[in-house]
TrEMBL record, chain A:
Residues 175-224 form the K Homology domain. SUPFAM superfamilies: Eukaryotic type KH-domain (KH-domain type I) (SSF54791), Nucleic acid-binding proteins (SSF50249), Ribosomal L27 protein-like (SSF110324). It is found in: Nucleus. It comes from Orchesella dallaii. This is K Homology domain-containing protein.
UniProtKB/TrEMBL annotation, chain B:
This is Exoribonuclease phosphorolytic domain-containing protein. Residues 24-157 form the Exoribonuclease phosphorolytic domain. Pfam families: RNase_PH. Gene3D superfamilies: GHMP Kinase, N-terminal domain (3.30.230.70). Belongs to the RNase PH family. It comes from Orchesella dallaii.
TrEMBL record, chain C:
It comes from the Eukaryota. Its main location: cytoplasm. InterPro entries: ExoRNase_PH_dom1, ExoRNase_PH_dom2, ExoRNase_PH_dom2_sf, Exosome_comp_Rrp42_subfam, PNPase/RNase_PH_dom_sf, Ribosomal_Su5_D2-typ_SF. This is Exosome complex component RRP45. It comes from Orchesella dallaii. Belongs to the RNase PH family.
Automatic annotation (TrEMBL), chain D:
It comes from Orchesella dallaii. Residues 105-183 form the S1 motif domain. SMART domains: S1. Signal peptide: none annotated. CDD domains: KH-I_Rrp4_eukar, S1_Rrp4. Belongs to the RRP4 family. InterPro entries: Exosome_cplx_N_dom (IPR025721), Exosome_RNA_bind1/RRP40/RRP4 (IPR026699), KH_dom_type_1 (IPR004088), KH_dom_type_1_sf (IPR036612), NA-bd_OB-fold (IPR012340), S1_domain (IPR003029), S1_RRP4 (IPR048565). Keywords: Exosome, RNA-binding. This is S1 motif domain-containing protein. It comes from the Eukaryota. PANTHER family: EXOSOME COMPLEX COMPONENT RRP4, PNAS-3 RELATED. It is found in: Nucleus.
Length: 260, 248, 331, 328
């Protein structure tokens, strides 16, 4: 097969301009040229820089996933995609379940991601000292922040903010924890207050929620029935088209009325 | 034209092929300590021509390959059932790895896990081995009785006796303790109960049974279990009387 | 990916919810799962889905072989179960799960004689159809036995095999290709189905999902057929007698519903299939293949003292298959 | 429906719970007084319970070995077969046979199963293996010093897998496993001899568990149910660490002990006697052993393996013990 055939079949695109493609669909393997104006470019998820091994110079930028190219204000580019798996970033808020309670200084945490192991120091709680620290059991839920993600080592979580206060982090009691696709979680977290789903649900059923960037959601309403209903609604919504949210919410509203 | 057989005549008088009445058990003998002192506890249970031996080893340090995944706060109960190659009419070559034996092993384990007080020996392992020597109907129920007796013999703390028997409904009469000859002609429901609370812990059905009859058959089986319990208790008491002397 | 560790809050929620008559997924405690059944292009393939998220595929096939020594007048029937690692996210291999499913299916379909095996006999003691059902668990979310039994039943009901007979005059095995004869369906004596329940302190939960199965220790399987006969019972936790009777009652009603649905779908498939009634052309047989038993016997006896065994695995047998087979056997 | 619904079949109702009144029970001290008599007090059979029997429905009793609390009605229920005993508020069921739990100060005989870091694991018939720390043995050279890295490397030369030792229980860990020590000349590795397994409950607790019997045999009656029988060489203390006495060469020492045929016969005879006692569920201690040994002398050693002879010996010992009980 000669060169011309391959280009026809593969439809490989090269020398694209980052700014031109914003909002377009990008496929894995698409190559972007380096912006000429030597300003600093920050690459987010789905984009990688390729460095020429011989000259040690930046050669191209390549997309490694399929998604819509987005641009954030100061020259930051990333791909927006639907995904079920979580990739960790510093300062992400994640939900986890205690998997094991070792004799050492750490709990090991299940963060619902096969590739990631995570651990939480037994001292990383508000006001914890060597002597007084919460005693958590296997199966307890925690809401933590990613402190560090060293390569080949477990994620390091913490349940205190840098200020030393918990500010909502820590162990969660009661309620229900379940998994939804990561992109749905992203939508929940980034939505503007006007069309924030959680607030809309909260107006129908008052409930506490915690949303982890890793796709876990924790919900607690006043009783078991309402908790299950809210959890079920969120799971349905995560699979639904955003246009249908309204009808689902209306349906939910009427179901809740019959229960209460 | 269907002609009457000898068995039909017997049925009219409610006598079963081996001469028993419908609610009569076969002859039962049981013995404890048959592997004394090699095993921690052991027992044999014979009902009619069905013969089963059981041995309990432990509790002892976990020695099986499960150790790696084993939670140190939990106890491992390991059950292994095998039937002798000569136990039934068809001679079998290997009996340990086939699906039937694996199923019985895993069912036995679930029964043992319920009667042994949970996690009383954290980090230890208890092995229960059950061997079917001769199968003349009701072998699974005999296995449960033998295993219970062996656990009692080993002095392993248990909540309650698990006792089991088979029962069926045939010619609209409930029958208890089905033998191999009858098994071919009617359903065979193995019923196991916890002797004190009468809760059902074992159910196993061979052949088809009208759902409508289930309640009657269960009642019959539970009555049979009570009779078995009495016999097991008697065996245990005899053993206790024998050993009383050494209690100091 | 779902977390593997079960959270304590979910544990207490499941138990608390059951007391209030509601379960995960906003189901009622006695509400069974919705079943979806579809059939494949080849005969005897069926996929059963129990929403949400349990999917099992079953394929029935038959080959000609030797009947077992203990039952010379019957065909054989084997069921094998595979749990795809994709379904669980981990290698299950030969663990207890597939073998437990296989045992349930064996008890219901084989030991309770759901399939008429005598009609599968071709020549007493020498040749019989060997029926085989391969069950693949594709997605797993609890209730594997329920789904697998449904898929197997669907596969058996839609299965067709070619006609095979012994020519009386020549003592030869004649296998008519499907295209040339009216295909033979299996004869089922009764149609079994199984319903599972989880036990949560005196409360029955019908057809639990995976999370409920993991959280609640007790499981009860009730197998019932279309004539309201119990064909399978299995219990892993102490249960009161009343609760057990309630479970069989619930199972019976649901079972009949589900079997009716399956029967309707099977009828639909059969009419769609438009099996032409084959009319035999005049004159000598065109493509039918004749295997000489006696020839086979002598040729095989010379080598290994074995009885002839002719096997092929595809239910859709064609003339070329037979030719190939013939070569293989005689070589 | 049937002719013989009741009557012929041995049917009884299953749910009938027996109940034992705690006020019939005698306190453990009284049992201790009975010890000298040797025979069982009559009331013990009245305290007999089997698993599932309710011991008491009253609140305020403490759950001891062999009992559990029924979660539904908080009653105390027996979980093993045996006799109920009460010490103040603590209720226990003394089981027959049963599991060896171990108490501090018990003499045990065990077999090394594993050599680990700074410790040995010892099979002592308990629910977990016993732990013998490197620091709780006497070094072969007899020095008293901290254990060095060389000692750690040479652990297998001191005790290796399969060796039989006698030891004393030093302490019980949180998880129920037992810590052993051999820091006494009485304990340590055992030389030539034979190990007999009996139920741990029939070993009678006495002040001394290591005996030189007049028949020229020494026995160690491990509380755990392992009994060690070895020939008694001239003037040698039984069960002593053979290496210790002659520090210059342990291997040669082991071979120096000449075991005569008579020694072997005596060991074998005592082994069979212990088997006979265990089969008849008679308590095992020095006196009962001697009774059994005497009773066995009219038989050839090999004949003692016959069940009828075993039973006869058991019967004779039982009579002897009853006589002794009446005499005192």
């Amino acid at each position: 097969m000669d060169e011309s055939d391959r280009s026809n079949i593969g439809m490989k695109r090269a020398n694209l301009d980052l700014n031109d493609e914003v909002g377009n669909l990008v496929m894995p393997g698409d190559e972007f040229s380096i912006p000429k104006d030597s300003s600093k470019v920050i690459l987010g998820p789905g984009l990688r820089s390729v460095i020429d091994k011989r000259s040690n110079e930046l050669k191209t930028i390549i997309a490694c996933k399929a998604g819509l190219l987005r641009k954030a204000k100061p020259n930051t580019f990333f791909l927006e995609m639907k995904t079920r798996s979580y990739h960790s970033f510093k300062k992400d808020d994640v939900l986890g379940i205690i998997k094991q309670k070792s004799k050492g200084e750490h709990y090991s945490i299940d963060v619902a991601c096969r590739e990631l192991r995570a651990q939480l120091s037994k001292n990383a709680f508000e006001g914890a000292t060597k002597r007084y620290r919460p005693d958590l059991q296997v199966g307890d839920c925690i809401y933590g922040k990613v402190m560090d993600f060293p390569k080949d080592y477990p994620l390091e979580l913490t349940c205190v903010q840098p200020s030393g206060k918990a500010c909502g982090l820590g162990s969660l009691n009661g309620g229900h924890i379940f998994h939804v696709p990561v992109h749905f979680v992203r939508a929940l977290r980034t939505a503007s207050p006007k069309d924030n789903l959680l607030q809309k649900i909260g107006r129908i059923v008052p409930c506490e929620t915690a949303v982890g960037a890793n796709g876990l959601v924790w919900v607690k309403a006043s009783n078991a029935v309402l908790t299950i209903l809210v959890a079920q609604l969120l799971q349905t919504l995560s699979k639904a088209n955003p246009d249908e949210y309204g009808t689902y919410l209306n349906k939910f509203n009427s179901t809740v009325r019959t229960v209460v | 034209m269907a002609y009457r057989t000898h068995l039909d005549d017997l049925w009219e008088q409610q006598i079963r092929p081996d001469g028993r009445t419908p609610h009569e058990l076969r002859n039962i003998t049981c013995q404890m300590g048959i592997f004394h002192p090699q095993a921690s506890g052991s027992a044999s249970f014979n009902i009619g021509n069905t013969k089963v031996m059981a041995a309990v080893y432990g509790p002892h340090e976990v020695r099986s390959s499960q150790k790696k995944h084993h939670n140190p706060d939990k106890m491992i109960i390991n059950c292994e059932y095998s039937s002798a190659t000569f136990s039934s009419n068809e001679r079998k070559s290997s009996t340990k790895a086939d699906r039937k034996s694996m199923e019985i092993s895993s069912n036995l384990r679930s029964v043992m896990e319920h009667i042994i007080i949970p996690d009383i020996f954290p980090g230890s392992q208890i092995d229960v081995y059950v061997e079917l020597l001769q199968d003349d109907g009701g072998s699974y129920s005999a296995c449960i009785n033998a295993a219970t007796l062996a656990l009692v013999d080993a002095g392993i703390p248990i909540r309650d006796y698990a006792v089991a028997i088979t029962a069926t409904m045939s010619h609209s009469v409930c029958m208890v303790d089905i033998n191999a000859q009858e098994r071919g002609q009617c359903a065979e429901l193995t019923i196991g109960v916890l002797a004190q609370s009468n809760e059902i812990i074992v159910l196993e059905l061979a052949n088809l049974l009208q759902n409508f009859y289930l309640k009657d058959v269960l009642d019959e089986g539970i009555k049979g279990c009570a009779a078995i319990y009495k016999i097991l208790e008697e065996a245990v008491r005899q053993k206790f009387n024998k050993m009383e002397q050494s209690l100091v | 990916m779902k977390p593997k560790t079960i959270a304590n809050c979910t544990r207490s929620l499941v138990k608390g919810g059951a007391k209030n008559g509601i379960r995960l997924g906003a189901r009622g405690i006695h509400e069974f799962r919705t079943a979806k059944i579809s059939f494949g292009n080849s005969v005897g393939s069926c996929e059963a889905v129990l929403l949400p998220g349990t999917r099992v595929f079953a394929q029935a096939s038959a080959a000609i072989g030797e009947p077992s020594d203990s039952r010379p007048g019957e065909g054989a029937f084997t069921i094998s179960v595979w749990v795809s690692p994709a379904a669980t996210g981990e290698m299950v291999g030969s663990s207890e799960k597939p073998s437990a499913i296989a045992r349930t299916l064996e008890r219901m379909f084989k030991e309770n004689r759901a399939v008429d095996l005598e009609s599968l006999c071709i020549k007493f003691g020498e040749l019989a159809w060997i029926l085989r059902v391969d069950v693949h668990v594709i997605e797993m979310n609890g209730c594997l036995q329920d789904t697998a039994a449904l898929a197997v039943l669907g596969a058996l009901l839609t299965f067709q095999r070619p006609q095979a007979e012994i020519d009386v005059n020549t003592d030869e095995l004649v296998v008519l290709p499907l295209a040339e004869c009216t295909p033979v369906e299996l004869h089922l004596f009764h149609l079994p189905a199984v319903m599972s329940f989880a036990l949560c302190d005196e409360i029955l939960l019908a057809e639990p999902c995976q999370e409920e199965e993991d959280i609640l220790p007790g499981k009860l399987l009730v197998g019932i057929n279309d004539s309201k006969e119990l064909c399978h019972l299995h219990l892993t936790h102490p249960i009161e007698q009343e609760l057990l009777l309630e479970a069989t009652k619930l199972a019976q009603a649901q079972c009949l519903d589900r079997l009716n649905m399956l029967k309707g779908l099977v009828e639909e498939v059969k009419t769609q299939r438009e099996v032409p009634i084959y009319k035999r052309p005049q004159g000598p047989r065109a493509t039918g293949t004749v295997l000489s038993l006696s020839a086979l016997e002598t040729s095989s006896r010379n080598r290994s003292e074995k009885k002839p065994s002719i096997k092929y695995l595809s239910p859709l047998i064609t003339a070329s298959d037979i030719n190939m087979l013939e070569e293989l056997c005689i070589l | 429906m049937s002719r013989n619904q009741e009557g012929e079949a041995p049917l009884i109702s299953g749910g009938s719970r027996r109940q034992v009144s705690l006020f019939d029970l005698r306190v453990r001290d009284e049992f201790a007084n009975d010890e000298a008599k040797g025979s069982a007090p009559v009331s013990r059979a009245a305290n007999y319970v089997t698993p599932g029997t309710i011991v008491t429905k009253e609140m305020g009793f403490m759950r001891g070995h062999g009992t559990f609390v029924n979660p539904s009605d908080q009653s105390l229920v027996a979980s093993v077969v045996g006799a109920v005993e009460r010490v103040n508020r603590l209720v226990t069921v003394r089981g027959i046979g049963g599991v060896y739990y171990g108490e501090v100060g018990d003499v045990v005989v065990g077999r090394i199963t594993k050599v680990m870091q700074k410790r040995w694991k010892v099979d002592i018939n308990g629910r977990l293996d016993g732990i013998l720390l490197l620091s709780s043995i006497n070094l072969p050279t007899g020095e008293l010093r901290r254990r060095s890295a060389e000692d750690e490397l040479g652990m297998r030369e001191v005790l290796k897998e399969g060796d039989v030792i006698s030891a004393e229980i030093q302490s019980v860990y949180n998880d129920g496993s037992l810590a052993l020590h051999t820091r006494s000349v009485k304990y340590g590795k055992l030389g030539p001899g034979t190990l007999v397994k009996v139920p741990s409950s029939i070993i009678k607790r006495r002040k001394n568990h290591i005996h030189n019997l007049p028949c020229g045999v020494s026995v160690i009656l491990g509380n755990n149910g392992y009994v060690w029988i070895s020939p008694l060489p001239n003037g040698r203390m039984p069960g002593t660490n053979l290496e210790e006495e002659d520090a210059d060469g342990k291997n040669t020492v082991l071979e120096e002990i000449r075991i005569t045929k008579a020694d072997r016969m005596a060991v074998a005879r005592l082994k069979n006697c212990i088997a006979a006692l265990s089969k008849s569920w008679l308590p095992i201690y020095d006196t009962s052993l001697m009774y059994a040994y005497e009773a066995s002398t009219k038989y050839e050693c090999g004949e003692l393996l016959r069940p009828d002879v075993m039973q006869e010996i058991g019967e004779l010992v039982r009579q002897q013990m009853a006589l002794e009980g009446a005499g005192s």
